[in-house]
Amino acid sequence: MEHTYQTILVGIDGSEQAKNAFAKAVEVARRNQGKIIVASVLDSQVSTTMGFAPLNESIFVQEEEAAKEMIQEAKAYAASVGFEAVEGVVAYGSAKTAMAKELPAKYNVDLIMIGQSGLNAVERFITGSVASYVIREAKCDVLIIAPEEAE
């Protein structure tokens, strides 16, 4: 039996890797007559660790606006290539658990497409990549999009 991916989750963070993963997700969704959930995850710990000063709240509002803008850009790209089935989500909390567990469960995701991080080896060691966590923890298929080679 051939499996088709009906609901594809893609996380975006403004990086080229994420844009590349989204572009490839559009093609996979189109071939499968599926839809894309494009998510931007805001780390809510940023605001709680600093205490809620009005200044920090405005930073959080700015982050939220930036996230919504990235989602709009993703939808605009999809529309420009004739694909409309894109739902945007701004999620809060840990990017790792949002992408690996919370969003897939909420939206019945059957494929997560994620861009390989642009971090260097030391940064990856310190932060632990979101991609590697998603690979270990997700209950559905995961497709890692490798960075495109520079010409």
From TrEMBL:
Localization per Swiss-Prot or TrEMBL: Cytoplasm
Record key words, sorted: Cytoplasm
Key word Cytoplasm present: yes
Cytoplasm as UniProt keyword: yes
Superkingdom per UniProt: Bacteria
Pfam name, any one: Usp
InterPro entries, A to Z: Rossmann-like_a/b/a_fold, Universal_stress_UspA, UspA
Residue span, UspA domain: 5-145
Family in the record: Belongs to the universal stress protein A family.
Protein name: Universal stress protein
